Amino acid sequence: MTSLNAGRGAEGNSDWGKTLEPSPPPVQGNPGLPCPPDFAGRPRAKAALAEEKQSYETLFSFIRARGYTQHFQPDSTILLHEEPANVVYLIETGTVRSCTIDSFGHRQIFAFPRKGELVGISDTDRWHFTAEAVDHVVVKSLPRTVLEQELAVNTALRQESRAYIRALLAQREKQLLMLSHSKGPQRLLDFLVTFAASRPSTGYIALPMSRRDIADHIGLSTESVSRAFSHLKRTGRIDLKTPEKFKII
Amino acid sequence: MTSLNAGRGAEGNSDWGKTLEPSPPPVQGNPGLPCPPDFAGRPRAKAALAEEKQSYETLFSFIRARGYTQHFQPDSTILLHEEPANVVYLIETGTVRSCTIDSFGHRQIFAFPRKGELVGISDTDRWHFTAEAVDHVVVKSLPRTVLEQELAVNTALRQESRAYIRALLAQREKQLLMLSHSKGPQRLLDFLVTFAASRPSTGYIALPMSRRDIADHIGLSTESVSRAFSHLKRTGRIDLKTPEKFKII
DNA sequence: CGTCCTCTTGAGGGCCATCAACGACTGTGG
DNA sequence: CCACAGTCGTTGATGGCCCTCAAGAGGACG
């Protein structure tokens, strides 16, 4: 929570960080240059200046076309930590919670994936987390072997799969930042805004998960979550029609 | 920080979660089965029961062989958020800090990669974070185009690259768990243990980074980090010879 | 209508951020 | 050589946030 005004000044790169040793093979036929042109600040061909919105349509279409529809009852387990990661899910309906539980029984919910999001794309051997249905969940599930076979030959699919996992990583890092630097009500508001953004809906938005789920997501106790809701309501930042229906203001 | 004793009982999967709709193409010539055998709990061939330690030797060797040696001065910038991700680094010497800074100037350090770790493997277009040298850092840097060309044709490399990013994701999730559920001294101890584990050294271990860096990593103020050090020392969990040299007990 | 669960609100206390001061060290310039 | 400023690490005092314990309201369900 330090503000980095002074700091150790990450400036003064002067002539450090330059290539000092051209290394044996000059890579790609750039005879005179110790360092190929890609080292310079040139953006890659496909990257427009305007932030290019990543699409996962190839990946999603593939799973939708080849996957099997499965249903999960509220609070049932979709995939369990340590078990073989034999499948990938694409959510069609409902909300999932992805979490881990430590040896003391403390639970951390990393995400609440919903319609149009993948669950299980990040593992190939065994699950490193657990996923449970929050409400009634419908998914398309695809055997991992099928996905892997296609990944081996389909470049576009590979790019999208990588991009998806990268996005997960960036998401987690954003959460780390939030957890260490913002206070309860702000964390709740951020969560609600993010959640609302995943719904195209206007008007009141329904929260499928319990206060405890929210608490274990944003790192508070259920009581503090409740107080944070009351605080946001009192200060006019949200409208809370019922405990489950809210609107951002 | 709830303990999940009662909870909504993630049991009772009974006959939910079964495939309800065989979906058009039965995939791989399993005529009668609506669901190929990989759906069952069979581990994949390569996965031994004993936790298989992932090796990144193909990836590392490739970078070592084709990369360029670069040096970075303490506190110089290795890669900057938003700039083109044209390169991948393998650290040979020194310690790096990978971080992001939010709009209020709050900094979150995600990791302190060191010898034998990669920096920048997670992005392909632009950096989603910043990396700075903590002390004098020597790296092998490889143009991304070279890596991508090889990834396109080298399956082993692809697997290792994916595994590396997966490991980063799991690491971040572990950090999230730690940040929300453990207190200052415990967080510091976890960090020190992790840091010590990355050194094969016996005896006292030197900390290259400042208290502020540690603070921004484990989500405390510098003063609290200092108090946590004192606390661990007082309760006999660490031996602190100088502010930079410690030993786990 | 009682039981159970969730959500909410209050009271008390602990952890930690903040402000402040101090010693140790370093590099600078007189 | 020494005064001086600047940085870093440490410790103390104070206050705020939030966890814990506790109690109560409201709804779901048998």
Strand content of chain A: 15-25%
DSSP strand tally of chain A: 12
| Spatial strand arrangement across the major sheet of chain A | 2-9-4-7
The termini of chain A sit apart by: 27 Å
At the first level of CATH, the class of the largest domain in chain A is: Mainly Beta
* Backbone structural class of chain A: alpha+beta
Greatest interface and its participating residue counts: A-B, 104 and 105 residues
Q: What is the count of helical runs of chain A?
A: 6
CATH homologous superfamily identity of the largest domain in chain A: Jelly Rolls
Rg of chain A, Å, rounded: 23 Å
* CATH hierarchy: architecture of the largest domain in chain A: Sandwich
The biggest sheet of chain A amounts to: 4 strands, antiparallel
Domain count of chain A, please report it: 2
The 3D shape of chain A can be described as globular
- The level of helicity of chain A is 25-40%
Average pLDDT of chain A, rounded to a whole number, is 83
Q: Helices and strands of chain A, in N-to-C order?
A: EHEEEEEEEEHHHEHHEE
Which regions of chain A contain 5 or more consecutive residues with pLDDT less than 50?
1-51
CATH fold name of the largest domain in chain A: Jelly Rolls
Oligomer: homodimer
